[in-house]
Amino acid sequence: MNRYKNSARLLVILIIAGFFTAGGISCSWKQKETKDWKIYQYKKPGFEIRYPATVIKVSKEGEKVILTHSISFEHPNPCAFSDEAPATIEELTDFRVTLETISKSFKETIATYEGGSITRYYLLDDTLRIEPGFIDKMSIGELNGYRITKGVEGCGLFSYYFPLDSNNILKVERSFITELQSIIRNYKEYLKLPGIISPEEEEKLFNQIVSSFEFLK
After folding, report:
1. What is the number of domains present in the chain?
2. Distance CA 199, CA 201 (A)
3. Which long-range contacts (CB under 8 A, 24 or more apart) does 189-192 make?
4. d(Cα 146, Cα 132) in Å, to the nearest integer?
5. 158 lies in some domain
6. Model-level pTM?
7. How far apart are CA 37 and CA 52, in angstroms?
8. What is the span of the domain harbouring residue 61?
9. Tens of pLDDT, residues 16-59
10. How far apart are alpha carbons 123 and 141 in whole angstroms?
11. How far separated are the first and last CA of the chain, in Å rounded?
């Protein structure tokens, strides 16, 4: 099983985004910080979020709402692990998050979207067994659930599962921004690029956007 554990990134979470509680990681933001942001409403299955339209681009792919930010910058692909992956990419994506609501129970959702060893060894009815750095309890605003860290060599993503009620789950995926991590030799040069979103800013934006989520039944 590939697990990506980055203590420096976790420290960023503690400092700027939230704090550890006995039950996991908690992040909260004042609503006034996002009250002037644009509202994106998705009527089926029914939710809305707020986002800074001058910074973040919103699109839709199937049932997923995708929020991204990138700058034009040709550079080596840090996650080219196969011959099919391009050796260079023309944009540096410094923010990528997807949201979707799933009309299943928590147990069914994990079995469907994670499966394998997570279902076998970590799924306990409607909860997950905690393994810090891999499976953590997570609270963002009024949402309470779990974060699963999946990746290798700095490439991967965080998957978040937040139960909305007994039959609806909010699934959020947040990509690692590999180019801006210390695993990349010249990451400090990338951080100086005009228009780049720093890891600290990415963390804050993510928590603010997710905190604004409202489930519309």
Report:
1. 1
2. 5
3. 190/73, 190/75, 190/92
4. 11
5. yes
6. 0.86
7. 5
8. 7-215
9. 344 444 457 766 555 677 889 999 999 876 899 999 999 999 99
10. 24
11. 37
